[in-house]
Amino acid sequence: MTGGDHANGPERIYAIGDLHGRFDLFRALMRTIERDHAARTPAVTRIVLLGDIVDRGPDSARLVRGCLRLSQLNPRFTVLRGNHEEMMVHALRGDLWAYRAWLDFGGRETLLSWGASPALTDDMPGIRELRAAAQLVGRDVIDWMARLPLTLRHEDHLFVHAGVRPGVALERQVPRDLLWIGEEFLDSEDDHGVTVVHGHTIAEDGPEVRDNRIGLDTGAYRTGRLTAMGLERGERWFLQATGAAAPVGAERREADEHRQTVAAW
Prior knowledge:
The chain is an alpha/beta fold. It has ten helices and ten strands. α3 crosses α4 (96-113), α3 (83-92) crosses α6 and α4 (96-113) packs antiparallel against α10 (250-264).
């Protein structure tokens, strides 16, 4: 499987759903995880972020810098690549079409969090604006995002951003499906050979637990609820941090942008 990683050592895993620039919720949830971990028996632990740490929310820059540093300091802190990181990399590496699409898909808020001027986020930016935006974000950040793994396997669980293509062997999955797949995966009752732990598709009422998959994206950006799942020796449990929700109308705008971008991408 492209970008896979086999986690042989850790006994306890905390997987965190889509953050979308909500540094406040990430910080609160990490404190909750620390307390939960301390209350349990000692264990080697891994933190896994399921992708889409950027876009839409107000603090993508601070969140990215923090995650980059954590991943460098601790090999058991893993950030998976989401479709928003994928778009951001394509955009800032010189694809003008991708740059314009990314701006309308949440990238505008990301650049503003880096202190971008309004000129860089206009409706029809040119290659000059794209290059200035890439310089502002920095090559180190762009290259780090490009290297993010697509999957992480731990025992009978597979961690991935969007899901897998039903009926396709895990080792033959393609990046587009791992990053973007929707109903074909969500509606499937197939046994994938593992329990797929994913984000990407919002379940506002809480984690979506089915026989073959667990969805952890509770819409942190627009609901103010960020969810994590703990996993240890077959036991699962859920933790949550809450905060302010997005402005009124954000949900409808996000849904419209998602449909348009998926169709084009």
